[in-house]
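forwarding from the other thread:

> can someone predict this with fe (ii) ion?

sure thing
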Amino acid sequence: MKSILTYEVADFLDNLLDVSNISDPFCKNGIQVGKSNLPVSKIGLMVDPCLEGFSRARKLGCDFLITHHGLWKFGEASIINTTYNRVKFLMDNNISLYVSHIPLDVHPEYGNNAQLAKMCGATDIVTYDYGLICNIDFDIIELKNRFDSELNTSSQLLKFGSDLVKTAIICSGSGSSVLKNYYKDYSKIKNVDLLITGERDSSIYHIAKELGVNVLFLGHYASETVGLKALIPEIKKHFNIEVEFIEIQTGL
Ligand SMILES: [Fe+2]
């Protein structure tokens, strides 16, 4: 059987996630560590590129990893300390690392935001900043419980708005700053009664309270597992290869 090569998986993901058309000031997207002609026999996915995850991946027989966070931004060149150890581990074990950050947050189908929107049956979805605005129809406590059970997380709710949620901003990861645009983008976000994001951010507490907007912090990690998981069936279908999500919970 013809082996699948690293560049073929990378090209497939670049196309699927429209990487060339999405700017990302936070991360270099695409292959961060690897050689184009290395064979790929099993693909692992995880949120954070860390030694614990790399070691688990090696034990599972993965030779191609997809992570959401990366080892460096575009243009960064220093490979030192923890980054040195991670890169060395990958190179010593012939494991390639492909990173998809903002492209995997914002993709209209596989993106973290789109997948979170799907979990709450969202409609009328429009992109906004690195997130999206959508209509939902949910009691706020029921919605919290749904996310807790779907994402295996313990979310935190700042209950500053109405019990019934009609319009939400969803922005995975560290997304609470979108509420700070409230006055600048008033016409777009004036009806929002809930912000759903990942990371707990104390700087948003009083802003949300004074605006009367609920905030649901899902946990940064939990909010960014869903996009990776959504890629699994697409990769399996295209390459007919073993693919596994590697859970490295941070609780954060
Ligand atoms: Fe993130």
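The chain is about 35% helix and 25% strand. thats all i got for now
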